[in-house]
Amino acid sequence: MSTIIGIDLGTSTTEAAVIRDGKPVMIVNPEKEIITPSAVGLDTSGNWVVGERARAQYLLSPENTAIEVKRKIGTDEEIKLGRQAYTPVKLSAKLLEYVRNYASEFLGEEVTRAVISVPAYFDEIQRQATVRAGMEAGLQVERIINEPTAAALSYGLEHMEEESHVLVYDLGGGTFDVTLLEMFDGVLEVKASNGDNKLGGKDFDEKLMLWLNEQFMNKHNVDLRKDTYAMVKLKEEAERCKKVLSTQPSCHVSVPMIIEKNGAPLALDEEVTAERFEEITRELIERTHQPIDVVLADSGVLPSEIDRVILVGGSTRMPIVAKDIQEYLNILPSQAVNPDYAVAEGAAIQAGMIQGSIRPEEGIVMTDVNPYTLGIRVMDEMTDDRMSVVIPRNVTIPTTRSQIYYTSWDDQTVAHIEVYQGESSIASSNHFLGDFAVGGIPFGKAGKEKIGVQFSYDLNGMLDVKASILSTGKEASIEINMLENKTSQNNRIDVSNWKESPIARQFRTAVRRGEKALKDPKIQYEPFLEEEIEECLYYLKEALVEENLEAALEAEEDLMEVLSDLE
């Protein structure tokens, strides 16, 4: 079996590590550096450039370079490089491919397997997108691990006998996570996680950029935001200034020719003090308080019961972070791990546990939690779009939870189960994960028949949802791989030529009945039925196109059951 590496795919930087002799070792890139900028671009010849070369190119050719792609992963937003647009998955894949290649060179063998870290507060759509990026990079993604959990693994491997509550405070380049863990007898148990996927070092840079631009506008009446190249220079200086202020009381920002006005060059020249930087970023620091409060409330742990706060992520080097934690929790944060390397080291430890290069008796037992609520859409007296919780957030996984529901209208024969993830009480405001139907409900009054729904969620990211009619025992289920892209309208095949299938003739009547039902005026009062009919029609036509007789017969049966509810 090939070696499994651990990868910390970050907003600003990316690192990789591997287990050697039971300990994590950081992997160096072609520049002989451990830290690789998370930048991807195209050079003048149309060739891909990644890492340090792309980061350097960004200063001269920002329109052909992408940075901070992680902020957009899991969205449909595309990123333009020159005239061509790319998905966040595609650009992340290029970065991971670069890591895979230099890791292969470092190890002297072809690397094809990895554990990749993600923010604990990433939802399943973002996790799926990360896995797809890994797959496109030629990697088999063995596990997705939460970044704070990975950092805690890095710490825990050297503190196996410790019994304590540990709060991992992870402020990276683009995301913020906070996770509370309990350590005892070699067990690392995650109690709760929360975070903010739109808070990181990038936002501190932007606050400083905004302040510097305001000073520049007051002096020269010129807005730097209207010039792309000026903003790239401003960003570079803001990042440099932030790092200087981590160790110095002030920083002189000077860019001799940042922009022109009436043909004459203008200079940016400002003195920024640490006090000023804290003042303009105070709002960002205060945004970390709510996730901390949620984690403490969900875990039932008081601030006084926290034994150690571990700082993770390069942005925790800002003095304001430790100062705020000490004031807010009355705990002096610990520098027990390297904030830049800990997540990659933890991912490598998880990889070693999977591969067996860390023996069970030498390793650490780890449990984790699901960071978001899981449930289904149900009807009540007020709406047909209520989120009914089956597995609450921050429940230790693996877990199995069940709920009992009742029929919603008279003579209902089919229950449509829609699975969602999120914290909104409105189901459609959450992330849709998948759906299925269970039929064969006996005729009767609304509320007479019971439908049992069971969710089983394991450490490998598999969510099994099963529904059963309690009076008859008839059941149906769906398996949702939280680490793979779910079936969606975007990746369905074209079924418009279903009539050309050699087995289409015997199913034409069923298709016509389904299409006729969609035009029935009564359908507007039955939104669930309309969706079910559309779904059944698609799967029937898909089976015909693929000439799958068995699947077509099953889809036809499902369609007939749904149509009986409309008649």
Task: Describe what you observe in this structure.
The structure is a single chain. With 567 residues, the protein is of the alpha+beta class. It has 4 domains: 4-199 and 287-369, Nucleotidyltransferase, domain 5 (2-Layer Sandwich), CATH 3.30.420.40; 201-283, Alpha-Beta Complex (Actin, Chain A, domain 4), CATH 3.90.640.10; 372-486, Sandwich (Substrate Binding Domain Of DNAk, Chain A, domain 1), CATH 2.60.34.10; 492-566. Helices cover 33% and strands 30% of the residues. The protein has 13 helices and 27 strands. The protein has helices at residues 52-60, 88-107, 124-136, 147-156, 201-220, 228-244, 274-286, 289-299, 319-329, 342-355, 508-518, 527-545, 549-566; strands spanning 4-9, 13-20, 23-26, 36-37, 39-42, 48-50, 65-67, 79-81, 84-86, 113-118, 140-146, 164-171, 176-184, 187-196, 250-261, 264-273, 308-312, 365-370, 374-378, 386-391, 395-397, 399-406, 415-421, 431-438, 450-457, 462-469, 475-481. Strands 1, 2, 3, 4, 10 and 11 form a 6-stranded mixed beta sheet that branches. β5 (39-42) and β6 form a beta hairpin. α5 crosses α7 and α11 (508-518) packs antiparallel against α12.
